[in-house]
Amino acid sequence: MPALPAPSARAAQATDAPVRMVATEFPPYTGSALPGGGIACEITRAALHQAGRSMELTFRPWARALLEFQRGDHDGVIGAWRSVERERTMRFPQPLGILNQVGFMARADRKRRVDDLAALRDLRIGVVHGYANPPRFDAANLAVEGAVDDLANLRKLLAGRVDLALIDKGVGAHLLETQLRAAAGKLVWLEPSVSEIPLYTVFSKIRPEGERFAAALSRGIGDLQGSGRLAMLLQQGARWQ
Question: What single string gives the DSSP state of each residue in 93-146?
Fold first, then answer.
């Protein structure tokens, strides 16, 4: 493996207090059992370090992470999607370079075209209860069958109880590499995705230090892009992209 570019001089001179970050369990993007906390945490850490800041990381359930962030227990949240509502209180720096691709998985022996959602109306689509699905998917008004989580959704697909499973591409790839390794050759991802959503690390728009932290992260990501290190991190930690 080629050596990674050395961090900038300012990164080596970081003396400020660590930036307090929080993330939730969303493997392979974030997770307490993943190397470095997952690819989103690794990129955030590397970018802050490049900008001369260190980082401490805590994992919380999503709702609790947001609550603690809003009351000031954490400086930032790793792994957020951008929305008009969130922009009222969250500062969005440069995205991390990770795209959450939400689309369909199918059994390998039953591939089909999925570019026209209207053509899928005679199929049963597996979804996860409580997930916010892409607006384009909801607008198609397809026949759906719920599961308790992504793992259960893929197991239903394997058993033939649904025809397709709506899932994040990275999540599907991670499950096939871990809990569903025996089924790795039996399920395939279908292009194109229904939706592609950039993943962000966000800071407070209300607290004054949020602007400073967001600027540092954007500067660090820019440096990582320029050096080629961001592409290397993504190749190592987000091979499904």
Answer: -S--S-EEEEEEEEEGGG----S-GGGGTTSEEEEETT----HHHHHTT-EEEE
